Amino acid sequence: MTGTLVDAGPAPGEPPPPDDAPRDVVGRVMPVFPEPPPLTSHGPARIIAMCNQKGGVGKTTTTINLGACLAEHGRRVLLVDFDPQGAASVGIGVNPHDLDVTIYNVLMERGVRVEDALIESGIDGLDVLPANIDLSAAEVQLVGEVARESVLSRALRPVVDDYDVILIDCQPSLGLLTVNALTAAHGVLIPLECEFFALRGVALLVETIEKVRDRLNPALEIDGILPTMYDSRTLHSREVVARVHEAFGDTLLHSVIGRTVKFPDATVAAEPITAYAPGHPGASAYRQLARELVARGHAA
Ligand SMILES: Nc1ncnc2c1ncn2[C@@H]1O[C@H](COP(=O)(O)OP(=O)(O)O)[C@@H](O)[C@H]1O
Ligand SMILES: [Mg+2]
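== Chromosome partitioning protein ==
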């Protein structure tokens, strides 16, 4: 289901698209992303790491809202909070700071199973593997482990068949935890804030992804670059996205997330925007992202 649908330029011999065809923000014809068909069975999950070593670019917001949108389509979704700040846990209504068992214990303690740490969110089909500040110790402790880069991959293995999609919310660094996420993942989604210096770190991120692909996880793909905090009124936002398109071609997704205060508001309410403001354009944007990823073959 990849390729043709997404890069839908006219096939040889076909007429070019009409001038009034809907276009994305860089002027590509906007494909129609159909409603994902219902699933008749579940699993094994495709694992997607939400990754950018810059903080505040929308990784956690994307993890929560993409997860909620996929769950709306009956997908079983696991959010893996892989940031010691615990923002993905909090954002979905779980207070991770009082928990005795989190992903940290699953990673570091023999005998603690991943099932022991899973929590159902208030949203149908959406579970969370929570994290709290304990996870910050793992970065150091993992250094001495055998196969230290694949600890997360092994930890998730028992539940991979129970979900259709597993989303890993990475911390803002390219350290060992992030390398673990990239080793566990099938694909990487890169949220990119539409801001001038946003592109600076991307080359280093792509280099890291390529290293992990070469050495640890040959099947790892970049699923897409997702512009976030896009403001259509500014030339600046449009220029940033145009630069991304120049540099990365169709790795740039068609879906774009606009800048709106509804996202921080939803964070305070500890809900995805699809629950907090279901009719808001921000909710539609994440629903479209979910449909685009399914259409590209990156999610069930
Ligand atoms: N599209 C958006 N428009 C406005 N604010 C946003 C948007 N996406 C995220 N935010 C806000 O920006 C801050 C950082 O987002 P977050 O998802 O936590 O980034 P990261 O996980 O990359 O650090 C949060 O307060 C969040 O609510
Ligand atoms: Mg975050």
